[in-house]
Amino acid sequence: MLEDSHSQPLWGQEFVSTYIKTGNTMSFNNSKLHTASMLALASRTLRGTKIQANNNEIPPAIHPIAIQKSGTGKSPAFKYARMVAEMADISFRSQTDLTEAGLIGTVEDSEPVRGVAAQAEIVGFEEMSTLFRLAEREHSSNLGEHLNQIMDNKKVQKDLAHGTIAYKPKCTLFGTTYPPEDLDLKRLLNNGTLARFFFFFKEIDRAFYRDTLGKVIDSIVSDDGTEELSRTDLVNNVGRLGTALQIIRAHYDSGFVFSFDFEPEDLDLEDRMWSVYEDYPEMTKEIVEPAIIRYGIHAFRIGAVMAALDRCSESVSLSHMEQAMDLFEQSWRQMLNYYNENYRQNIAELESENETKFKIVQTLAQHGSLSQSKLAEEVDVTTRTVRKHADTLLLAGVIAESGGNGRKKMYSLAER
């Protein structure tokens, strides 16, 4: 190994803190997103290892997903992750728009052409909700299953009219997305896709944007050498992080089964998960329930990462697991927070919609018959909102159409 400073590896908590601190100089206030990419990269170096659970082999890869609003520095965070990946000789492909054929592959001239899942070690999605939307489309109905197979390190097979493509991908998926409002996230959790991801959820308020703007301004106009990290230090840190990941991969690449040197009651994972879980409303707990077992396994994957960062330890100690639990418990609570917030918003929207429907019925009861435009004026909503709720009330047999078209379409209460 070279003796210059940028080739000296970083280990343990120094690796973790340096990765996050360095990332925050490129994408401000984004510790959660940097933690996510760090776990994706570090667990990727363990591709030659496995975790044994009875007769089942658990792949070590951690597939993080970070959910946060637009304008929060996701692109610079991806740029930073690619820099570290390149230094560690880990192939990293960023995607913004990808079809199922692009991810899994296709057949051209009777020859299979593998997708990026076979070409890259890390497949990063800067807007992962587009992939989930694609999975909901009828012609991509198998995409959800393929995503699950990728994350479970299982063979994917796609049967097409002109041939079949089949292989065992060994990539890690890493994605960011703004909070999607048009996706059935409960269904994505129940079918196992979101349960296989490791969650990071950041609630963004106005103070975040103002604080980040101030840091951006300071970074642009500061010329007195007071920047948090010089360009030289940035390059050195990225080099040292990459060197550690190279060493880890070389150490474990020939195949290895991690041992866990502690008793289950010493870690008390079940009770620690449950103490957080019980803090949430019953509906939130019901939504997250299908993910509990898969999510608990993430703790052991992070424990293996912490052991690897401990100068390539060949067993996972209770100390490694306690370090892992710091990150695991943060993520577990963030996942619950996200679904709780999403559930509360859905309830609020449902209550608002029900109130609007009641006003429509009440107004028609008072006036007898009204046009779509007049009804919108009386209820104080848009004609589009009236049309949307009127369709529902028509199907339920509560109201009836009484002539006219478009905004002049007339509605009245249905006869009983």
Quick overview:
With 416 residues, the protein is α/β, with parallel strands linked by helices.
The level of helicity is 40-55%
Spatial order of strands in the largest sheet:
4-7-10-3-11
Alpha-carbon distance between the termini? 86 Å
- Strand fraction band? 15-25%
Radius of gyration: 26 Å
Please report the total strand number as a whole number.
Answer: 16
Instruction: Report on the biggest sheet.
Output: 5 strands, parallel
Count of alpha/pi helices: 18
- Averaged pLDDT, please? 86
Label the overall shape. Answer: elongated
Characterization of the model:
Helix content is 53%, strand content 17%. It is α/β, with parallel strands linked by helices and 416 residues long. It has a 5-stranded parallel sheet. The protein has a 4-stranded mixed sheet with strand order 2-1-12-13. The chain has a 3-stranded antiparallel sheet with strand order 14-16-15. Helix 3 (74-87) crosses helix 11 (231-252) and helix 14 crosses helix 16. The relative contact order is 0.12.
Strand and helix map with partners:
Blueprint: H1 12-23, H2 31-44, E1 49-53, E2 56-58, E3 63-67, H3 74-87, E4 92-95, H4 100-103, E5 105-108, E6 111-114, H5 116-119, E7 122-125, H6 129-136, H7 143-151, E8 156-160, E9 163-167, E10 172-177, H8 185-190, H9 193-196, E11 197-201, H10 206-221, H11 231-252, E12 256-261, H12 264-267, H13 269-277, H14 282-288, H15 292-309, E13 315-317, H16 318-367, E14 369-371, H17 372-379, H18 383-395, E15 399-401, E16 410-413
Parallel strand pairs: 1-12, 3-10, 3-11, 4-7, 7-10, 12-13
Antiparallel strand pairs: 1-2, 5-6, 8-9, 14-16, 15-16
Helix pairs in contact: 1-2, 1-11, 2-3, 3-11, 13-16, 14-16, 15-16, 16-18, 17-18
